[in-house]
């Protein structure tokens, strides 16, 4: 629909409405324009081409010659919404050069400044719609990117996640009881986020104990697209091995970038000889399509699957000719888009409870940069007294896969005056083969010389040498490590296989470890089955890390059979069989399912037998999930033991409206406010409006558009949601308030006729006499369908502007709302002529 069509009135033919024998005509002109916009300031959601961009105050002003108040805007607002005003200047003809945006606010039609654009207010939905051609949008705005000016920092709030468990077992006349509660606490003050985690443990013999974990404060650095953290945390481990620290960290945050820059994807370059259509396919799916002008073209905002898969590009010329090419796309963790930068800087003390001496000061920095379409360079350094290391590497995208190689050199000075120097070479490979359904998600190999030590190992060895006078040759150091994760699909009905493997060799005494697992899974007639093998082996090299040798192989088989027609009965029979050296053969059979269709209450019962037990054991558990948290209980009984446990997990959010209990929280949280709308679903599993009018959305995506819908089903009959959808782009860690205004009113069905017995005309308006607001209309069979927030009042029915085209219904409602089982108040009242209405004749049902 064009902007001019949006402004055209809608014209109804009054003769299409059947008026019966009375022949009363309806004045349909009142339907030809929507409700008038009144001047004032309104907080509106702003949508550009249907995509939410911001929520802010918009001023509506009266404009001469127009019945509706018009929205006012500024050039700064349009720019923040992603409209490219420099392109709009170039897009106008010479006769339009005077239409330049003035300083400050303007209430003119947007089409004057941006060709073909339109702006429209929808006050009932509290939205401002802007329509603009794609050409006049900035590149990030053409995607779902939300401008930083619209990121919501949230409100002052307190957060508490808890995970509690009580476990008790009685065996051989002795009872052991243990209680645990994990706590994650937070406090948001403006843009500052404070976080702390800890645990509480209790047992009859040891009593209670409080163990603190990390504690830090964090803020966004919007201009730098980064996070600043002060306190205790852990490095990412992406380039160097992860270490815990107490200090300061400055780190880029890719989540603040537009979608098209967040993940690696190659730039597609080609040439067209005419106005051509360019289609990009990945694994057979169309992922991008656009029209380009003759000449060279470049697609830099591609949003393909982040795990890779070559891109097949097809160029369809205007005359129908087609030509194409393939762009390699295989990603590794290190690959970035051309020109993109990722960095991290850390300075502080190393945190390790195993150190006996004073924790040393450490510094670590990393930098990655996309050099061109297929190449990314990266490097870093790590420092602490007596230790220095440097890393340099490259990541390469080829049609054979994604490769990365880096070399780390390190020098360690020990307290005894010794110096150890070494290096470590790391190679990795990643590839997705769509035709064979094979995914090499990780193939990595690392080789280290005997003198190489990572930061954490170097500090541990320095501490051991200083405090224990131990031999450095006994310290376990990795010589070589190989990791592989491979999955293979076998067609639509063939199932899938996987292989995961990790092996390490040590310099000391030939020590080595191996972890290997492989499996096959499939479905047959709705029944799921899988076969898996797992082997672990370790030969201790002596020293700190391995106490002895282990060698074990486990084989498992599982079978799940859904009960009920088409596998939707809600209950599942689960069987499990395994064999390993320690336990011998083990078998288990049981049934699990839900108590209701919502799945918020579940049960599981099973019996098991093992070769090395004297008899069978039985297990039972129940779990119940509420909007306020999750709770569970379990029982087990075997030949010589009895076990019981209770568990509870959830969260509490303290916000300006009070305290609300919820399920376990994610990083970013939303609080919905819809007073009197108890029972309404918030569109997220397990979340609904409570008695206090609040609900918690446990997880939102930071820096991205989140749409939250409230389903009015379940809301009391006398409560009306005035808005059912909200959009927000929260900052990471924020607690954002989402207000859904409600109106408490009682739905009425009034069977009414005029004093002369004539029926009321269909579609006539019902207007509250006191407020002048339209509160309903006449439906079929001369029945008024209205909502009223008053216990008594008068309704004026209008089907025209003349006095004989109006009448009035006076009503008085009973003390309580609708009858049992009825959603509406049912009334039978006369609609009196305006000048013949009897005084005081309100009727109570």
Automatic annotation (TrEMBL):
It holds the Pfam family PapC_N. It comes from Pseudomonas paralactis. InterPro entries: Fimb_usher (IPR000015), FimD_plug_dom (IPR042186), PapC-like_C (IPR025949), PapC-like_C_sf (IPR043142), PapC_N (IPR025885), PapC_N_sf (IPR037224). Its main location: membrane. Gene3D superfamilies: 2.60.40.2070, 2.60.40.3110, 3.10.20.410, Outer membrane usher protein FimD, plug domain. It is a multi-pass membrane protein. This is Fimbrial biogenesis outer membrane usher protein. Belongs to the fimbrial export usher family. The lineage of its organism: Bacteria, Pseudomonadati, Pseudomonadota, Gammaproteobacteria, Pseudomonadales. Residues 12-165 form the PapC N-terminal domain.
């Amino acid at each position: 629909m064009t902007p001019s069509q949006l402004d055209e009135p809608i014209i109804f033919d009054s003769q299409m409405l059947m008026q019966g024998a009375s022949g009363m005509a309806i004045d349909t002109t009142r339907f030809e324009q929507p409700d008038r916009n009144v001047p004032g300031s309104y907080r509106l959601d702003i949508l550009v081409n249907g995509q939410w961009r911001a929520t802010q105050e918009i001023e509506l002003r009266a404009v001469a010659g127009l019945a509706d108040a018009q929205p006012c805007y500024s050039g700064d607002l349009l720019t923040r919404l992603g409209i490219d005003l420099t392109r709009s200047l170039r897009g106008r003809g010479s006769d339009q050069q005077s239409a330049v945006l003035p300083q400050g606010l303007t209430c003119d039609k947007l089409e004057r400044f941006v060709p073909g654009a339109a702006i429209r207010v929808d006050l009932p939905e509290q939205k401002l719609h802007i329509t603009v051609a794609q050409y006049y949008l900035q590149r990030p705005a053409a995607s779902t990117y939300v401008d930083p000016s619209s990121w919501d920092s949230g409100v002052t709030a307190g957060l508490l996640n808890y995970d509690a468990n009580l476990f008790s077992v009685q065996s051989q006349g002795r009872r052991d009881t243990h209680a645990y509660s994990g706590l994650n606490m937070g406090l948001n003050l403006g843009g500052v986020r404070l976080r702390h985690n800890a645990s509480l443990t209790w047992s009859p013999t040891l009593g209670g104990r409080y163990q603190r974990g990390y504690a830090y404060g964090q803020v966004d650095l919007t201009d730098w697209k980064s996070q600043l953290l002060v306190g205790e945390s852990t490095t990412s481990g992406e380039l160097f091995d992860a270490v815990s620290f107490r200090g300061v960290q400055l780190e880029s945050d890719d989540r603040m970038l537009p979608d098209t820059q967040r993940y690696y994807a190659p730039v597609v370059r080609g040439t067209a000889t005419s106005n051509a259509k360019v289609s990009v396919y990945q694994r057979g799916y169309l992922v991008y399509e656009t029209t380009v002008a003759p000449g060279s073209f470049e697609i830099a905002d591609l949003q393909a699957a982040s795990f890779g898969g070559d891109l097949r590009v097809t160029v369809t010329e205007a005359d129908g000719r087609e030509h194409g090419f393939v762009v390699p796309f295989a990603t590794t963790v290190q690959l970035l888009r051309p020109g993109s930068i990722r960095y991290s800087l850390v300075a502080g003390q190393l945190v390790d409870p195993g150190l006996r001496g004073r924790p040393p000061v450490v510094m670590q920095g990393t930098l990655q940069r996309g050099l061109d379409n297929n190449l990314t360079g990266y490097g870093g350094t790590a420092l602490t007294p007596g230790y220095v290391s440097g890393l340099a590497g490259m990541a390469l995208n080829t049609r054979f896969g994604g490769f990365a190689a880096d070399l780390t050199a390190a020098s360690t000075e020990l307290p005894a005056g010794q110096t150890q120097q070494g290096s470590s070479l790391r190679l990795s490979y990643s590839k997705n083969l769509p035709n064979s359904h094979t995914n090499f998600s990780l193939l990595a190999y690392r080789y280290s010389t005997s003198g190489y030590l990572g930061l954490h190992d170097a500090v541990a060895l320095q501490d051991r040498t200083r405090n224990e006078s131990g031999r450095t040759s006994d310290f376990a150091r990795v010589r070589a490590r190989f990791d592989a994760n491979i999955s293979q699909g076998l067609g639509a009905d063939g199932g899938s296989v996987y292989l995961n493997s990790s092996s390490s060799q040590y310099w000391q005494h030939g020590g080595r470890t191996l972890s290997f697992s492989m499996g096959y899974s499939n479905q047959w007639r709705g029944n799921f089955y899988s076969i898996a093998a797992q082997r672990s082996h370790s030969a201790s090299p002596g020293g700190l890390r391995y106490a002895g040798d282990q060698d074990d192989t486990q084989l498992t088989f599982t079978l799940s059979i859904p009960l009920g027609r088409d596998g939707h009965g809600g209950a599942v029979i689960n069987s499990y069989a395994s064999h390993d050296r320690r336990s011998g053969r083990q078998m288990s059979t049981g049934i699990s399912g839900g108590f209701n269709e919502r799945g918020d209450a579940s049960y599981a019962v099973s019996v098991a037998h093992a070769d090395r037990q004297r008899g069978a054991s039985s297990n039972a558990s129940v779990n119940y999930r509420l909007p306020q948290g999750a709770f569970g209980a379990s029982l087990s009984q075997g030949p010589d033991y009895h076990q019981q446990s209770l568990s509870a997990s959830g969260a509490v959010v303290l916000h300006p409206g009070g305290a609300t209990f919820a399920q376990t929280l994610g990083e970013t949280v939303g609080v919905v406010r819809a007073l009197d709308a108890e029972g309404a679903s918030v569109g997220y599993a397990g979340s609904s409006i409570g008695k206090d009018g609040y609900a918690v959305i446990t997880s939102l995506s930071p820096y991205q558009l989140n749409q939250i819908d409230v389903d009015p089903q379940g809301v009391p009959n006398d409560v009306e949601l005035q808005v059912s959808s909200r959009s927000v782009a929260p900052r990471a860690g924020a607690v954002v308030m989402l207000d859904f205004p409600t109106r408490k009113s009682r739905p009425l069905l009034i069977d009414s006729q005029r004093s002369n017995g004539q029926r009321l005309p269909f579609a006539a308006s019902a207007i509250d006499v006191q407020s002048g607001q339209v509160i309903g209309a006449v439906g079929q069979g001369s029945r008024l369908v209205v909502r009223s927030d008053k216990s008594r009042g008068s309704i004026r029915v209008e089907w025209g502007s003349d006095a004989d085209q109006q009448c009035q219904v006076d009503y008085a409602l009973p003390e309580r709302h609708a009858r049992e089982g009825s959603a509406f108040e049912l009334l039978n009242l006369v609609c009196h002529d305006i000048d013949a209405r009897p005084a005081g004749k309100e009727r109570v049902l």
